[in-house]
Amino acid sequence: MLYGRKCRALICWDQVGEHVIEGPEMIGVTNAKVAVAKEKLKEARTHRQDRVMRKKTITFVKILWKNHPEREATWETEESI
Predict the structure, then answer these.
(1) Predicted confidence band at 9 (pLDDT cuts at 50, 70, 90)?
(2) How far apart, in whole angstroms, are the C-alpha atoms of residue 31 and residue 76?
(3) Cβ contacts of residue 50 below 8 Å, gap of 6+?
(4) Does 6 map to a domain?
(5) Residues in Cβ contact with 52 at an 8 Å cutoff, skipping those fewer than 6 apart
(6) Residue 63 lies inside a defined structural domain of this protein
(7) Domain range for residue 52?
């Protein structure tokens, strides 16, 4: 028993040796790939909804995802898209 629990799993196995920290080019490539993946997942924006919170109006858009049925559509702010 470790910390009062029966089993603990190891989180990370790593090789001994030199480690290379990726530069900003790799981060830029990764961000571009993430943006492309997000666009592929979105299927349609069907509904818009405005919510007023005191003095600010926030616009929500209903997003239908390709691999999910209608009931699993999500409401996201227009700014986050």
Answers:
(1) low
(2) 20
(3) 57, 58, 59, 60
(4) no
(5) 58
(6) yes
(7) 44-81
CB 57 within 8 A of CB 79: no
Domain annotation covers residue 50: yes
**Residue for token pair 């961000």:** 31
Q: Return the half-sphere exposure (C-beta side, CA atoms, 13 A cut-off) of residue 17.
A: 4
pLDDT at residue 13, as a whole number = 66
Give the count of domains, the chain.
Answer: 1
Specify the residue for token string 């990726």.
22
Model confidence pTM above 0.85: no
Q: What is the pLDDT of residues 11-50, one digit of tens each?
A: 666 677 777 767 788 888 888 988 887 776 665 555 677 7
45, 63 in Cβ contact below 8 A?
yes
